[in-house]
Write a structure and sequence with these properties.
The complex is a heterodimer of chains A (379) and B (167). Chain A has 379 residues and is of the alpha+beta class. Chain A folds into 3 domains: 135 residues, PAS domain (Beta-Lactamase, 2-Layer Sandwich); 53 residues, no CATH class; 155 residues, Histidine kinase-like ATPase, C-terminal domain (Heat Shock Protein 90), CATH 3.30.565.10. A 5-stranded antiparallel sheet of chain A has the order 2-1-5-4-3. A 5-stranded mixed sheet of chain A has the order 7-9-10-12-11. The longest helix of chain A has 46 residues. Chain B has 167 residues and is of the alpha/beta class. Chain B has a 6-stranded mixed sheet with strand order 2-3-1-4-5-6. Classes of the chains: A alpha+beta (379), B alpha/beta (167). Strand 3 of chain A pairs parallel with strand 2 of chain B.
């Protein structure tokens, strides 16, 4: 350090200037001067290497973009007013700049603005490590919560499944037992013809129960198979479904709207469309009818509507009809397993879509099944 | 060229920085580096919207701020906010909705969008999202910073809206 008392030595910079130069050269701080035109007029220190004299300040100091009016307003404010932006890192592609604190103030002596650029403290490393550990803990906690939720969902599925088995299969089991008792009674009475007829009933009921069990097992396996998402042309799929259906005379299916490409599970879309159209025909109350299948692409989803002109579904049944083994079949209508719409609902859920029913026989005929189908999934 | 400041808000670890890096550098780094303070990026919208060329100055904030971010100098003169959540962490989605309310209260009339991120590991979770965050819900984007899905679209549409509304 120069001896400030030695008047005979050549003029030496003051200790303050020497220290200041050292800090600027070491990249601890820097200074940028700019005028009311926000063009850099001077700069000092390695930390200001991001800007050049003569360039608009915000060309490179992008953290001040949007704050130009606030900066200019400093000139009319009492001394001491500053704009302080702490811990900013300007990411300039592969040339990320160090994290700095920016302080802008009006420097009345030079009638210009002065921006102090100071390196943010190195405690950021410790903070970074702490944040990393906190994040790891949060991720682990989130994973536990997520697994718990999945477990709860699986348990609910199991309970529903057990409920269906105990409730919906109990009735046909009981009917089977009664039919068997009737066979015994007929044999005891020596009435072979009646016994044969009862045995035919037993056979029909066991076949029906077998169908129900198969349907239930298929239902349980929806979403658990390793279905692969692929790019498909939905127009081809819906055309193929319509072609393959055996429609009664008097019924027709019209395909309308825009059917785009999707990245989804082909079998899922096929199943859903097929079940909804078949369901509309099966539950129609007239000898002729029309089903319209339309599609409308939106940004992330495809909205598919299957609309019929049948009797409609009362709002009170909108949830029930989507449950396994539930049917609103009227007397005389062919009985199914009551699983079609349950399959639809479950399948739609597995691809991340939603299903809604719009129908109210009290106001008008017809039912609309409205599907929102994600345009891209990874299965 | 017009430049507008937009904020990335949301809890730590939801993918704010990954979204910014995917948008600007078209890169994804699996090594996590927490953001301290704020990282600022410039994104030039290409091709430019019909209304004209625009750059978005993306402020990628430290997730530890929570709702106190709205009184921080970082938010000054922000034209828009993207509020990010992680689909694999339900709590971050709840935070998204609170942050959106906070942003709308603090900055009425500005543009906001909700980004549900990490869709590449969503595994069918979309069906369990609340209606406000469901696929197709207005102002909601389902993205993956890892694969790039929907990232550019979210920001490009925001840029067009900012220009159209003169924000």
């Amino acid at each position: 350090m120069p001896d400030l008392q030695d008047a005979d030595s050549a003029p030496q910079p003051s200790p303050l200037l020497t220290a200041g130069r050292l800090l600027a050269e070491r990249g601890i701080y820097g200074l940028v001067w700019f005028g009311r035109d926000l063009v850099v007029s001077a700069r000092y220190g390695r930390l200001t290497d991001f800007c050049e004299v003569g360039d608009p300040l915000t060309d490179n100091c992008i953290a001040l973009i949007g704050l130009e009016d606030d900066v200019l307003a400093l000139a009319g404010q009492p001394p001491g007013h500053v704009i302080d932006i702490p811990a900013v890192a300007i990411m300039a592609g592969d040339r990320d700049l160090p994290r700095v604190n920016l302080t802008v103030f009006w420097h009345a002596e030079s009638s210009s603005f002065l921006m102090l650029v100071a390196r943010a403290t190195s405690r950021s490393e410790m903070e970074g490590e702490l944040s990393k550990q906190m994040r790891a803990r949060l991720m682990a906690e989130a994973e536990v919560v997520e697994k718990s939720r999945q477990l709860a969902r699986a348990n609910r599925d199991l309970e529903d499944f057990a409920g269906v088995i105990s409730h919906d299969l109990k009735a046909p089991m009981r009917a089977l037992r009664f039919a068997a008792e009737d066979v015994r009674a007929s044999l005891d009475a020596g009435d072979i013809d009646a016994a044969r007829q009862r045995l035919d009933e037993v056979e029909a009921r066991t076949r029906r129960m077998s169908s129900m069990m198969t349907a239930l097992l298929d239902y349980a396996s929806v979403g658990r198979k390793s279905d692969v998402a692929e790019t498909i042309e939905t127009a081809e799929i819906v055309a193929e479904v319509v072609r393959s259906l055996l429609l009664p005379d008097g019924f027709r299916v019209d395909v309308t709207g825009t059917w785009p490409q999707l990245r989804t599970v082909r079998a899922a879309l096929d199943l859903v469309l097929r079940n909804l159209i078949e369901n509309a025909v099966k539950h129609h109350d007239r000898a002729s009818g029309r089903i319209e299948v339309s599609a409308r692409p939106e940004s992330e989803i495809l909205v598919i509507v299957v609309a019929d002109d049948g009797p409609g579904i009362a709002p009170v049944h909108h949830e029930t009809v989507l449950l396994p083994f539930r049917t609103l079949a009227r007397p005389g209508q062919a009985e199914g397993t009551g699983m079609g719409l349950a399959f639809v609902k479950r399948t739609v859920a597995t691809v991340g879509g939603r299903l809604a029913i719009r129908s109210d026989p009290a106001t008008r005929r017809g039912t609309e099944f409205v599907l929102t189908w994600p345009r891209s999934i990874d299965a | 060229m017009i430049a507008r400041k937009v904020m990335l808000l949301g809890e730590i670890g939801v993918g704010k920085s990954s979204l910014a890096r995917r948008l600007v550098l078209d890169r994804f780094d699996s090594d996590y580096l927490p953001t301290i303070g704020v990282n600022v990026y410039r994104y030039e919208v290409k091709p430019p919207p019909a209304q004209g060329p625009i750059s978005l100055i993306v402020w990628d904030t430290d997730g530890n701020f929570g709702e106190s971010i709205f009184s921080h100098v970082y938010m000054k003169q922000a034209a828009a906010a993207f509020i990010v959540g992680d689909i694999t962490r339900r709590a971050t989605l709840d935070t998204m909705l609170r942050l959106r309310s906070g942003f709308r209260d603090a900055f009425p009339g500005r543009y906001d969008a909700l980004i549900v991120n990490k869709m590449d590991i969503a595994a069918g979770e979309e069906a369990h999202l609340p209606d406000a965050l469901a696929v197709g819900a207005p102002g909601v984007y389902h993205t993956s910073a890892k694969t790039g899905d929907n990232v550019r679209r979210a920001f490009d549409e925001a840029a067009a809206t900012i220009l159209r509304r003169g924000l």
